[in-house]
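Input.
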Amino acid sequence: MRICRVIGTVVATAHHPAYDGQKIMLVRQDSPAGEKAAPAFVAVDRVQAGPDDRVLVLTEGTGVRQLLGAEAGPIRSIIVGIIDDIDIERSHT
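Output.
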């Protein structure tokens, strides 16, 4: 799983049938502290995420296929949760 931020919405009128009825978002991986950590990529949204939401994204193809069904098609990333808060434990040395 990756911690990401929703940075946009993707509209594709011509697409693979697996994307029929799917909401597609542009997300960017962030560090737990909220800093940009990687380039943007697309993910199917199954939790009604919105702009600037921090989300949990599953990017492992087999897991995505299990969530969407065996005939999921070429979908590699799926938003599976909206993050409310991240509490980072710090060592007191």
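The two ends are 30 Å apart (CA to CA).
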